[in-house]
Amino acid sequence: MKKSKYYLIIALALTVGLVLSACNSGSDSGSDDGGDSNNSSESGKQVLNMIETAEIPTGDPALATDASSFIVFGQTMEGLYILDENDNPIPAIADGEPEISEDGKEYTFKLREDAKWSNGDSVTANDFVYAWKRAVDPETGSQYAYMFSGIIENATAIVNGEADPEELSVEATDDYTLKVTLEEPVEYLNSLLAFGTYLPLNEEFVEEKGDDFGTNSDNMLANGPFVLEEWDGTGLNWKYTKNDEYYDLDNVSLDEVNVQISKEPGTAVNLFETGKADRTAALSAEYAKQYKGNENAATFEEGSSWYLKFNQERNGEETPLANENIRKALAMSFDKEAYTEQVLSNGSVPADGYVPRGLAKNPETGEDFREESGSLISYDVEKAQEYWEKGLEELGVDELNLDYLSDDTENAKKTSEYFKNQLETNLEGLTVNLKNVPFKVRLDTVTKQDYDIVMHGWGPDYLDPMTFLDLYVTDGGNNNTGYSNEEYDQLIDDAKVKYANDPAKRWEVMLEAEKLLVQEDTVVAPIYQRGRLTLIKPYVKGLEEHLFGPDYSLKNVTIEK
Amino acid sequence: MAKYITKRIIFLVITLFIIASVTFFLMKFLPGTPFQNEEKLSVEQREILNEKYGLDQPVPVQYANYMINIVKGDLGVSFQFDNQSVTHLLANRVGPSLQLGFQAMLIGTIIGVLLGVLAAMFQNTWIDYGSTFLAVFGKSIPSFVFAALLQFVIGVKLGWLPVASWDGFSSSIMPTIALAIFPIATAARFMRTELIDVLGSDYITLAKAKGNSRMEVSFKHAVRNALIPLITVLGPMAVGLMTGSMVVEQIFAIPGIGEQFVKSIQTNDFPIIMGTTLFFAFLLTVIILIIDILYGIIDPRIRLAGGDKS
Questions:
Q1: CA-to-CA distance for A74 and A117, rounded, in angstroms?
Q2: What residues does the Solute-binding protein family domain cover (chain A) (predicted)?
């Protein structure tokens, strides 16, 4: 008995010793790197600690395709325009509004002469000429090169590899004057000019870095309020510090922003709760539900629109969804409000139209497109059943089997279950087969039009309803539904060409187009406009969120503890 | 011995070659392109990009090119991280994963062996039952549950250790424990069974009869023999750690390689899929080689060079 106790004590002592030695060496090395960010706030420095959910894939604006990169450019770079707190494009590097020729095609921008790169070089007109020509050059491999197509003269041919990048109609008449010629007048040009792909680049610097440009924070230059630092190209941490060369430095309060990636929403919440982070990125549904109504919770309506897309032609044959009544029945048979409230509960709002709210305003009255267009198709079980009966009769069947395609994330699966339940309960004789597949498979299946119904989301490339509407022209690259209506094609073409320089008429035509697309033809069934719920400490003031371009801007943030 | 190791290294290279080939062709079955903005690209643009990255060529040609580049030591450039070479990504990400894996393996086997020895020596007492309980617990609880629980209790509620991030040794403690629970369980179970077996054998009775103390008998004679089967499970254990690390790395926001392995497949990032697969394969084959060598050292009866006639 005595002996056994002896062994036990030895074993315990060994275990405890091991753990303790691990802890000791931990506190030594830990304090070296970890301590400074927390102390600095006490010395009166303005420090913000943020959480992001994904790495920065690239620091090269021409190659960027994703939110993380655009967020970085939003803090470190400025184009001719930037977005203000209400998502209105305002001149930044451009010195006031441009001179526009009578036909609306020629723009002459004066640039501000006090704008500098973080290496001290001036930001000149040539920086724009160089950056844009580089972006459209197929050699560069920009996936957003199409943002220039149909906008800047000759861009389409260059992007498709049929013309020399030098032919792009953009010219520096002197160091601070930029002349741009457009293909057609473009209503929403200013919002494009605020987009990442249109940012200027310092030619000398980019050429010097070659393929290494944008691969880590040393290989990048800033001309905006902050400079990116301590980003090694693949890491989960980086920081922003004030750009001493920034022309509006007096209005920047933050000294330092520390960014930590946490892909696990639970970890992000824990970091926030323990005071290691002042703001989280968008929370996933389960946490959004938990924090809804919390004093630290903030919601924002994003610019993406989500809807069910109906395939009318599969494998060369008409699907039951080619029947308009069937489509209408489906579009009216699910409760959008219950879905956004109970399943998403992250600030998403139910939508009865396709173009999201907050995207564009009537050029004359200033009324929002969504408000003016109004409710085009809403949840109405009785009406849905009427259409359903009619549709089934026309097809000569009693029941239908339809595939419902969606992603395989937790949230997408939950959503699929919800829609299966809603549709099957409200429409008699309908069986919905759920197909939850990985993202890339979903894209592939939709492109091949090998589906019946797909849950689809679309985000804006610029601030204008056209970025949503022109998807559904006959044989459009992202139509993928087999929908073809001459009247619709005509409306879109009119808005792009005939009324390009007549904002009021153009607006009217787009309203008509949306009505035709959703209310009359019901090519898509609107569900919701996505929202995001983030946690943010009340002492963080002035963080501006955007529904297009970078998710937010930190320039005007102050810490008021 | 040298001859044996050379032979094994040749086999290792062949194994890696086969893995690389199979992975390459399987990977090409993945639907879609590696382009993030795939959905919005025009047909012409997609063709231009495919051409730029050599994806327009027939798969066997792509395969040949890839293999030639590998021999030259060039693993290609990532699609997710533009212009970032795969070697650079691996170099940046491998460190934390290896450190965690090594710490977990070390702590896991030491504590596991201790628990197993205690359980065997105090068979059918509360120590034994406690150890068995711990082993079953460690085997059956998924690492993401355990990791999240650790994070919440120790990081949030008690505030003893950092909740997440990779910032010095203190931030590696919780992920190490979360990872070590599996090797602890495995090692404890094996050690107990083997040791009970060995303790019942004749030579132990002999050793006891000679008047050796209980401790001397256990540690000098029994434990060493009981260790052999444990070495066998070190290989699978290492694999368990690698797969476990993907989840644990994500929960503790550790810049490791595990998570990239999954993400590269989801995004069709071909060069990273190949790079990470080859890296894991290499690591595993090397671990297996080391274990085989260890065998010979611990148990001289095992002849390394099969059919050694000398």
A1: 15
A2: 89-480
What is the helix (H) or strand (E) element at residue A51, kind and residue range?
strand A47-52
* CB-based contact B143:B181 (threshold 8 Å): yes
Mean pLDDT estimate for chain A: 90
Q: Which residues of B touch A141 (CB under 8 A)?
A: 48-49, 52-53
* CB nearest B84 (choices: A25, A215, A445): A215
Alpha carbon of A317 to those of A343, A449, A464, B52: distances in Å? Answer: 35, 11, 35, 36
Strand partners, A529: A305, A349
The b/e string for A169-196 (b: 16+ C-beta within 10 A; e otherwise) is: bbebeeebbbbbebbebbbbbbbbbbbb
Residue A177's H or E segment, with its range, is: strand A177-181
Express each pLDDT in B207-230 by its tens digit. 888 888 877 787 777 887 788 778
Give me the helices (H) in A185-278, please.
Answer: 189-193, 203-209, 265-273
d(CA B310, CA B299): 18
Closest by alpha carbon to A58, among A169, A164, A205, A217? A217
The minimum CA-CA distance between A112 and chain B, rounded to whole Å, is 32
Q: Which one of B37, B83, B151 has the shortest CB-CB distance to A144?
A: B37
pLDDT per position as a tens digit, B76-93 = 999 988 889 999 998 888
Q: Cα Rg for chain A, rounded, in angstroms? A: 27
Q: B303 or B170: which carries more pLDDT confidence?
A: B170
**B290: part of which helix (H) or strand (E)?**
helix B270-298
pTM value? 0.87
**Which residues 134-153 of A have a C-beta within 8 angstroms of B?**
138-139, 141, 143-146, 149
In chain B, residues with a C-beta closer than 8 Å to the C-beta of A235 are 92, 255
SS3 A242: strand
CA dihedral A287, A288, A294, A300 (to 10 degrees): 150
pLDDT of residue A155: 95
Contacts of A204 (CB under 8 A, 6+ apart): A121
Residue A534 near residue A282 (C-beta atoms within 8 A): yes
Report helix, strand or coil for A305: strand
pLDDT tens readout for residues B48-78: 889 888 899 999 999 999 999 998 889 999 9
Token duo for residue A138 = 């197929």
- Nearest by Cα to A358 from A502, A546, A170: A546
Q: Quick check: helix, strand or coil at residue A63?
A: coil
The two three-digit tokens of residue B288, written as one number: 């297996």
Q: What is the pLDDT of residue B219?
A: 75
Radius of gyration of chain B (CA): 24
Residue closest to A38 by CA, chosen among A256, A270, A314, A361: A256
3 state SS for A522-556: CCEEEEEEEEEEEEECCCEECCEECCCCCCEECCC
Opening angle at CA A492, ends A446 and A81, nearest 5? 90
Q: Could you tell me which residues come within 8 angstroms of residue A520 by beta carbon, excluding any fewer than 6 positions away?
A: none
